[in-house]
Amino acid sequence: MKIYQEKVGAVIARLKINIESGLNLEEVQKKQKQEGMNRFDEAKKESIFKKFIHHLTDVTTIILMVAAIISFYMAITTDHGDYVEGMMIIAIVIINAVLALVQENNAEKSLAALQSMNQQTTKVLREGQEQMIPSEELVVGDVILLEAGGVIPADARVLESIQLRVEESALTGESEAVEKHAEFTTDEELSLGDQQNMVFSGCLVANGRGRAIVTAIGMKTEMGKIAKLLNQEGSKKTPLQNRLDSLGKRVSLLALIAAAIVFIIGVYQNEPLLEMFMTAVSLAVAAVPETLMVIVTLTLSFGVQKMVKKHAIIRKLPAVETLGTANVICSDKTGTLTQNKMQVRRVWFRGDTVVDVEEAMTDEAMEVLKMAALCSNAKVEQVEEDSQQVVGNPTEVAIVSAVENNYHTKKEIEEKYPRVAELPFDSSRKVMTTVHKMGKKYISITKGAFDVMLPKFRFGDLEQATVVNDRFGKKALRVIAVGFRIFEEKPSAFTSEYLENEMNLMGLIGMIDPPRPESKGAIARAKRAGIKTVMITGDHVVTASAIAKELGILTHAKEAMSGAELHQITDEELTKRVKEYSVYARVTPEDKIRIVKAWQKTGAVVAMTGDGVNDAPALKASDVGCAMGIAGTDVAKSAADIVLTDDNFATIVDAVAEGRTVYKNIRKAVNFLLSCNISEIFVVLIAMLLGWGAPVIALQLLFVNVVADGLPGFALSREKAEEGAMKEKPIAKNQSIFGDGLWKWILFNSILFTIVTLTGYYLGSFVDGVSTTVGASHEVGQTMAFLILGYSSIVHIFNCRSSQSIFKVSLSSNKQLVEMAVLAIFIMTMVALLPPLQTIFSVVPLSMNHWRIIISFSLLPVLATELVKFHYSDTETED
Ligand code: ATP
C-alpha cells in the first residue's frame, strides 16, 4: 500500500509520532544518524588537479610550451645555447597557472559560501514547540507547518489543510496550483498530481496553510528521484564576463597578427629563424590579457563578499553588475521603508469620538479590538517564564498586542467564540474573514482595508467612517475596518461572496508604522546618485502619501496614483506617465509588474522589492529583484536576484554603491592590463619595423607580464569605492566597458609606454655617449627596454586606481596593492642587479646614467597622466 492510500491515523501510528508535540531531540538525532540529512547529492566538483590541467591546456599555454620546446631544441643544436630559457618559460607557465588557480579558487569558495547562506528553513513542531530549522535537518516523522509562499522541504502526508493549494510544476509540469485535503482517501493507484493528501519536496505553497508529516527526505523524495544530480547554476558567466571574454579574444587576435608581422619582418631582415619565431610567439603570448578574466572573477567575488557584510546576499552573479546601472528602485513601503512595527493608536466606534488608546482605552474601543483579534492569526508565545511575545503578521500583532496590553487575552476570547472557518488574508483581497460559534448562533468577522470593505457594508455610520478614515490616513495611520454578520445557523457557504457582504460596520482601527530611521538618508543618497525611489504599497493613498512625504519620496500629492487609477490606464499611457509618479497606493502585487515594465520601456534599469508569493513575477521581470530575507517567502527569495537579510531599503542603496565599485574596479583592471599589453605589441612591432632588432626577448616579456602586470593587477579587485561614486549618475545600461573615455586613456598610456620604452631601447642600443663606462649594445638596449617596460607598468597601477590625482588616493586604503607593487619592483631590481639572475634573463650590468634614464623614463607616463588629470579636473570645476 502506498502512503497516500493509507489512512492518516495509520501513517501516524506506523511512524509512532505524537502529532501534538512532534519529535524530540533524541529521536531526531537517532533518525539523522540512520537516514542522513535532507539534501540532494551534489554534482561532483572539478578537482584542483583537473582545473590545473585545464589551465595548462589553454591555447596560450600550449603556444608557450611549443616555445619552450623550440628553446630546448636551440640549446641542443647550437653550441652557445642554454637550457635555462626553456626551463624558465615552463616555470613561468606553471607559476601563472598556480597563481590563477589560487585566485580563482578563493573567488569560487566565497561564491560557494553564498550558496549556503541561501539555505532554506522550515517551521517544524518539535518537543511541543514550533521552531524554525534549516530544512536540511528534517527527518521522517517531523511535523511541518506549511504557509503560503513556502517551499515544501520534503515529501509529506497532509494532516491539516486550510484552503491549501500547492504549485507542483517543478515535479508535474502543471502550472495551475492543486488543492490539498487532509481528509482525502483513495484505494486507487494515483499519479503524483492527483495525490491530494500528499505534498512533495521542492513544490510551492501557493495559498492557505496546513500541517503535514514528513514521509521521505533527500534523495528518497519524488524530486530526489528525478533530480539524481542537482547542479547549481553557479558557474554561469555574467554579461560583463562574456563581453570581456570576447574582448580578450580580440586583443589576442591582434597580438597574433602582430606576431605574424614581426616574424615575417624578421625573416625578411635575415634575423635567425628560430629566434624570430621565439620573439613572435612570446609577443603573442605576452600580449594576451589572460589575467584579465581572473581579475574580473576576483572583483566580482570580492564585491559579493562586501555586499554580504552590508546585508545583501547575491543569488545571481550578474546582479552585481546590474546593480551598478540601476536608476529606479521600486520599494515596498511596509517593512522596507518603514519598521513594520505597527502600533494601534486610535479606534473609532461611532459618532465623533475617536479614542486615543494610548491615553485612555474605553470599553467600546476594546470591543472593536477584541473582535479584530478574533479575526487574526497572530499568536501569543511564551518567551521566558514571565514574558510573552506576540508573533505573526504585523498588522495583527498590533491588534492582539493592544488587546493583551489592556488585560484581556486572545485565548480567553477564542475560548468563548471558537473559530469554525477562515478565509485567509492576502494582499490582493486586502481582507480576511473568520467564522465563530457564538452560543447557538454563528458570527462571521471580517477585517481589512476600509475602502475595499466599504461597498460590502449594509449597516453602520458609513459617512462618518469615511471622514474618519481620511483623517487617520492624513496622519499616516493605516486603517483597518472591522465588520461582522450574525447567522442563526451555521453559514451555508464559507465563501467570500457570502460571508463578506451585507455586513455591519463595527469600527475602525488606526495604527502607525514608523519609518525606519535610515530610510530618509538612503533615499536622499539614492537621489544624489541619480536614482529615483518609487514607493509601492497596499496601503491607502492618503496614508502612503503622508509617509512618502515624510521620507522625501514625494513632494506633491499629484505624484501619487491609486490602484484604481492604475487599472484605468493602458500600458502605453502608463509608460508615458510613469516618470510623473513616485507613489503607487492600494495596488496589488500583480500591478507591480506593470510598473516595472513601464519603467523598463523608458530605458530605466529597475530594482524591485518583494516578499509575497504574488511578488515573484515582478521580481523576475525587474532587472534586480530584491527579496526580503526576514519577511520574504521562499517563493519570493527563489525568484529574486538578491536577498536583503535585514529587509531594509538602505541596504539596496548600499548594494548599488558596491555594484558601482565593482564595475569601476573592472574598468580599472581593463585600463591597467590593456595599456600594458598593447604597449608591448607596439614596442616589439615598431622596433622590428624600424629594423632595430627585437627590443625584448621572449623570457623578458613573459616576466614583465607575470611580475609587473599580474602581481599588482590582482590587487585592483580590492580597490575601495572612490569618493563621490554615489554623486555620479548611474552607469548607462549598455555602456561599453570602454565608455566614458576609457579607450582614450588606454591609447594615451599605451603610446606613452611605447615612446619611453623605445627611446630607452634606442639610447641603450645605439647611443654611445650615454655612459663612459658601459658602451651601447643590443643587450644594454634590451635591458633598458625590459626594465622601463616593467617599472612603468608597476607605477601605472597607481594611475589606474582613480580618475583623480594619485596624490589624492590614500595608499593605506589598498595595502595589498602597495605591497604587491613594492614586491614587483624588488623582484625586477634583483633581476637587474644579481649576476645569476642577469644571466638567466639575458640582462647586462648598466651604468648610473642608464639607471637615471630608466627611472625617469618609467616615471614620465605618470607625470604626463597627472597633467592630463589636472587639466580635466580644472575644466570640470570651471563647469
Ligand atoms: P506594502 O505593500 O507597503 O508592503 P503591505 O504589504 O502591508 O504594504 P498589504 O499587506 O497588501 O500591504 O496590505 C494592504 C492592506 O490590507 C492594508 O492597508 C490593510 O488595510 C489591509 N491588511 C493588511 N494586513 C491585514 C490583515 N492581516 N488582515 C486584514 N487586513 C489587512
Automatic annotation (TrEMBL):
SUPFAM superfamilies: Calcium ATPase, transduction domain A, Calcium ATPase, transmembrane domain M, HAD-like, Metal cation-transporting ATPase, ATP-binding domain N. One of its GO terms (cellular component) is plasma membrane. GO terms for molecular function: ATP binding; ATP hydrolysis activity; metal ion binding; P-type calcium transporter activity. It is an enzyme of class 7 (translocase). SMART domains: Cation_ATPase_N. Belongs to the cation transport ATPase (P-type) (TC 3.A.3) family. Type IIA subfamily. This is P-type Ca(2+) transporter. Keywords: ATP-binding, Calcium, Calcium transport, Cell membrane, Ion transport, Magnesium, Membrane, Metal-binding, Nucleotide-binding, Translocase, Transmembrane, Transmembrane helix, Transport. It is a multi-pass membrane protein. The lineage of its organism: Bacteria, Bacillati, Bacillota, Bacilli, Lactobacillales. It comes from Vagococcus entomophilus. It comes from the Bacteria. One of its GO terms (biological process) is export from cell. Pfam families: Cation_ATPase (PF13246), Cation_ATPase_C (PF00689), Cation_ATPase_N (PF00690), E1-E2_ATPase (PF00122). The chain crosses the membrane at residues 52-77, 83-102, 251-268, 280-304, 670-691, 697-717, 742-763, 783-800, 821-844. It catalyses: Ca(2+)(in) + ATP + H2O = Ca(2+)(out) + ADP + phosphate + H(+). The keyword Transmembrane applies. Its EC number is 7.2.2.10. It is found in: Cell membrane. Residues 2-76 form the Cation-transporting P-type ATPase N-terminal domain.
